[in-house]
Specification:
The chain is mainly alpha-helical. It has a domain of 73 residues. It has four helices and two strands. Strand 1 and strand 2 form a beta hairpin. The radius of gyration is 26 Å and the shape is flat.
Length: 184
């Protein structure tokens, strides 16, 4: 057992030495890619790059990504850093600056979670609808399988109605009644 552990340690040590990280230097003081998905030597510019740039990079020129304002590396080889507490995801700017005490931070996170739950619920309901349909199609006129398939489909539809109804109610309360920022 000791020989096995020693061999394993030697093997891990050899891997660490062999695959040591290589130093990569920025060429022309530009990083390869920014956090919004724009990369050097790549002709396609992400469609939401301008909005992402305005969200994450305060001092950058967000009109033309080819100027490289989001890729400029400092003299200390530090790449451009985004505004602390901001994140670009699901097509919108999410701000956690100052924790949840700043205006809009909690509602921004809540909106993202609500939309994500709605999308997942819709996908799961669709899969159960397909599964119930498959059960009915392969039932070969057996009443038990037909009833089982009907129960699966009705359960999927009821679950979809409940989950979409809850998303609607949360959006109604957050957007219309309370007028929380970042709620659409």
């Amino acid at each position: 057992m000791k020989k096995f552990i020693n061999l394993l340690l030697i093997f891990i040590f050899a891997l660490i030495i062999y695959f040591k990280p290589l130093l990569v230097f920025a060429q022309n003081n530009l990083a390869t890619c920014d956090l919004c998905g724009y990369c050097l030597n790549y002709e396609k510019i992400p469609p939401d790059w301008s909005n992402c740039c305005k969200c994450l990079y305060e001092k950058a020129d967000c009109n033309d990504p080819k100027k490289g304002s989001t890729l400029t590396v400092s003299q200390n080889f530090i790449p451009p850093t985004p505004i602390p507490g901001r994140w670009w995801g699901l097509g919108r700017c999410i701000s956690f600056a100052g924790g949840f005490t700043s205006e809009g931070a909690a509602s921004s996170l809540t909106q993202v979670v609500v939309e994500l739950v709605g999308q997942i619920a819709g996908g799961v309901a669709f899969l159960f609808f397909l599964y119930g349909s498959f059960i009915i199609l392969t039932s070969q006129s057996q009443p038990e399988k037909i009833n089982h398939g009907k129960k699966i489909i009705s359960g999927a539809l009821i679950g979809l109605i409940i989950s979409l109804g809850s998303v609607f109610i949360i959006n109604l309360i957050g957007n219309t009644l309370l007028r929380l920022p970042f709620f659409r």
